[in-house]
């Protein structure tokens, strides 16, 4: 199988005043195509930091993050943004839906070319048929989560990163 993500000797250090905090120290792992993995640990153990590094939302202090065969530190900021936009789907802890946009519009947001038909098909897959025009305030918490999942699937990503999604399953995502 192909490695979609490889983390090699990754460290992330934050400066807090005079003190240096090592949020991640020498992490190594690979994610193969088709794999479903969970990163678990107590609060403050670096799970979200690791997801931010894997999702190219932050850069490691040292080490390598290789996504879909590309070492992110060898890419320009623009190339990193394109890789993030086209290859990664994010499901954030608080969903980050835009309140003034409908479910369908939220799903189309990351699309390079907005595609209403595709957005509706993805919403159908996550069980939101007929709720395309609802605003986030008109949806239950579970429905908002499914819109966030649908948005993460919008660009057919090679990697989906979900932060604190304890009740998310591959079946929920379709």
From TrEMBL:
A molecular function (GO) term: ATP hydrolysis activity
Signal peptide segment: none
Source superkingdom: Archaea
A Pfam family hit: ABC_tran
GO CC terms, sorted: plasma membrane
Stretches of the chain forming a coiled coil according to its record: none
UniProt domain ABC transporter: residue ranges: 5-173
Gene3D superfamilies for the chain: P-loop containing nucleotide triphosphate hydrolases
Keywords, sorted A to Z: Transport
Protein name: Phosphonate-transporting ATPase
């Amino acid at each position: 199988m192909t490695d979609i993500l490889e983390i090699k000797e990754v460290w992330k250090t934050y400066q807090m005043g005079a003190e240096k905090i090592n949020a991640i120290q020498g992490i190594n792992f690979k994610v193969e195509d088709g794999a479903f993995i969970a990163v678990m640990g107590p609060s403050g153990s670096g799970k979200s930091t690791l997801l931010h590094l894997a999702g190219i939302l932050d850069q490691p202090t040292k080490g390598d993050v290789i996504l879909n065969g590309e070492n992110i530190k060898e890419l320009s900021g623009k190339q990193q943004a394109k890789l993030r936009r086209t290859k990664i789907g994010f499901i954030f802890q608080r969903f980050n839906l835009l309140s003034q946009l409908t479910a369908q519009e939220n799903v189309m947001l990351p699309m390079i070319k907005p595609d209403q038909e595709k957005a509706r098909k993805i919403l159908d897959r996550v069980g939101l048929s007929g709720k395309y025009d609802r605003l986030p305030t008109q949806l239950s918490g579970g429905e908002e989560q499914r819109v966030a999942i649908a948005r993460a699937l919008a660009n057919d990503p090679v990697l989906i990163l979900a932060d604190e999604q304890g009740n998310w399953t591959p079946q929920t995502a379709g």
